[in-house]
C-alpha cells in the first residue's frame, strides 16, 4: 500500500501565514510608493511600457488601449481595466502637481466625470515624466525578470527629480496607508541641495526652502503648525481653504469661488451649497451656479441685505470649501514600509541618486575604456602599417591573419612613443606589448580610408579626448563631493527647465473658522431688568422719534405670572455690537465676561432670559454695572491694553482705578474686580486712558469734575479711595469720563434733561463736594443719569413701565444746551406714576437716515410699532447760579 504524502496542519497557522504573505505582497508590490522614485509598481510598469514604445515628446500620442495592452501583456498581468485608471491619474493636472502623462482626449474632470474609454484616448509621456527614466540604459538600476520571465523590467527608475515629494501619493495597504502631499519642484530641489551642502540640517532648517504642500488646485493653507508637524514626524494635518472673492453685480453682492481644495469634487461642492440654501442653514443665498470651463468659477448669489463675509465663513464651515488634508508619509524604503520626515525622504533620494551617479559613471568608464582599447589598436596599426599589411597579405585566411597579428610584438616604449597610455592593459611579456583579441579584431576591421593622414590625426585627437574623459570619470569615482555636485547640478538644470511658481499660498496666522466668524457684527440694544432678565435686540427694531415723543412699547413687563415679576422694569440699557465683549460687574465686586452674541436674542417686546441662565452667578450676586469692550477682530493683547484703565464708582462716592489687563485672564465663574463693603453698591464702571478727566454726579444734583491722574492704580482686590464727598441722604448715581467735543447730559426721573459743556464745571480735587449740575425741583425729580454726549448722538430712554423712546441729542428738535443749574427740557411724555429709569447712547445704523416724517424728522419705523406723537417742549426753567449752588469742599 502506497504511503500518503498528506500531513495535518493547523488551519489557524495556515490562514495566518497566507494572510501575512498576501499583506506583504500588497504593501510592497501594489499599494505603497517607493521612496526612491515615488512610484507604485503599476505606475512604474505603465511608464516603462511607454518607454519601450518610445512615447517621448515630441513623438505623437499613442492609443491608451495599446499602452495598457502592452503593460498588461508584458509586465502587469491584471488586465487593462485596472491599468487604465492609473494611467489617467498620472495625466490629470488637478490630481498631479507635475503630470507624468501628456493626455489627448477626455481624461475626466475635477467634477468627478469619468474618462473616455481607452480606445478613444491617447497619451505619451511628458518631458518631466521622461526624466524619471533618464540614463536607465546605462546600468543605473537593477532589472529583474517579468512575471513570465520572457522579459526584464526595472525594479526602480533612476528618477532625475524627487517625484515622491513633488507629486506625493496615496495608497491603502493592509493595516497601513499613505497620504503624501505634493510640493513645489523648485522648493524641493532647493531643499535637496541644502541638505547635500549641510547633511546636519534640521527639518526646521529645510522649512526655509520647502514652505509646505503645493497643491495643483492652488488654494490657501491656514496655519503653520500642521506643516511643522508633518515635516518633523511624517504625519500631521493641514487646513486648506478654497479661494473666493466678494464682488458686486447689479447692486447685489456675490461670492465667486475660483479655487477649490485638493481632491474636492466641484460638482459635489456646488450641490452641497444648494442644499444648505434649500435647508435654510445658510439663509442669505438666493442661487448658485457653476460657470467653470478649464478654470473654476462658481458663482454664489446673495440676498440684497446679506452679509457676504458671514456667508463666506459659513461656506467654509459647512462645505468642503475648507478641508483638512491628513498627511501620513509612508513609503517603501529598502523593501520595508517606513514613515518618513521631510529630511528622511530627501536623504533616501540623495542616496538613491548617489548610487545612480556612481553606477552610471562606472558604466561610462567601461565604455570609455573599451573605446580606448579600440583606438589604441588603430594607433598601433597605423604606427606599424607596413608590417601589418605584410602579415595580412601573406596570410591565407582570417584565422591565420589573427594568429600573425597576435604573435606580433613590439616594445612598450614604442607604444608610448606613439602617444598610447595602454589603458586597455594588454598582456605584457617583459618589454614587449602583445595585442588583445579585441584589438586584433579591430585591426582586421580597419578600413582603407582610415589610413589617410587626416583620419590618423582624427583618431589621435579622439584618443586624447577619451583619455581626458577616463581621467575625469575616475576622479568622480574617487571623490564623493564630485558625485554630490553632479546631483545638485542636474537637479538645478531640471528646476530651471521645468520649475513653476508656487500655486498654494500659505497663511501663517491662519485662524480657523470660529463661531464669531459666522455672526454678523450688527448693532444691538442690550437690556437688563431690575429682576435680572437680559436680552439683546437689533437696533433696527426701534424707530427714531422726535424729542417729547410718546415712545414704542419696549419690554413686556407683565408677561410674568408672579406679582413680583409684574413689577419688573428695565434697569440697564446700552448699545453694543454683536462681537463686543461685555464685562458684567456684580454687587459683590466680581466680574463676568461674555460676548454680546452669546446673550439671548428677544424681540423689542420680549422679556429675555434670566441672567443667571447666562452667567454662572452666585446665589447672592446681582448685576450692578456693565462695561462694553469693543472687539478688535479677535481677542488679542491689543484689546486688553495695559494703557487702558477701569474706573469703579460706588454708591458712597468711593472710586478705584485698575489696569484693564488685570481682567484679561477671566474665568467662566468670574473673578474679583473690586472689594466692596457690606451695605455699599457698585454704581458705574468706565474705561479710560489713564489721564482722562472724570465727573461724579449725585442723586441730589451735585457734580464733581477732577483729573484721573489724582487716582493711583490699584489691584483687583483693592477697595478704592474717596471720589466725591456726599451730603447726608445723597448718593452717587453716575461716573462719566470727559471726552473731546462732548457735553454732560443730565436726565431727571420725571423726563427732563439738559446738556451743559464740561467746561462749565471747574476742576476740583478728588474728594471735594462738587458743584450743582441741575436745579432739583418737584417738577424735575431727582437725577437718574448723567452721561457724556455728542451733538450727533442718539439716546434711548427707558421708563419704569417698560416704555422706551429713541431721540437725537442735537438738531432743531434735539436737547437744547443750557446752563449748569437749569432744569432742562422735556425729553419724554410720562404717564402717572411713571419715571425714567435709565438712559443710554445708541450707535446708529446706516439705515437710520433713510426715512423722514412729515415734520422733517428722521425716523426709523419699527414694524407694528406705535404711531409717534410729537411732544411739546417744556419751557426751560433757568436758574441763576448762587453761592449756595456753587459751594465746594476740597
Largest sheet descriptor:
4 strands, mixed
Strand order of the largest sheet: 14-9-8-20
Instruction: Report mean pLDDT, rounded to a whole number.
Output: 82
CATH topology call of the largest domain: Neuraminidase
The helix tally amounts to: 19
Given as residue ranges, the uncertain stretches (5+ residues, pLDDT < 50) are: 556-564, 845-890
The amount of helix comes to 25-40%
Radius of gyration: 45 Å
Number of domains: 4
Number of strands: 44
> What is the terminal separation in angstroms?
130 Å
How does the overall form come out from the CA principal axes? elongated
Strand content: 15-25%
Which second-level CATH architecture of the largest domain applies? 6 Propeller
| Estimated structural class | alpha+beta
The CATH class of the largest domain is identified as Mainly Beta
Give the CATH H-level superfamily of the largest domain: DNA gyrase/topoisomerase IV, subunit A, C-terminal
GO molecular function: ATP binding; DNA binding; DNA topoisomerase type II (double strand cut, ATP-hydrolyzing) activity
Pfam families: DNA_gyraseA_C (PF03989), DNA_topoisoIV (PF00521)
Protein name: DNA topoisomerase (ATP-hydrolyzing)
Catalytic activity: ATP-dependent breakage, passage and rejoining of double-stranded DNA
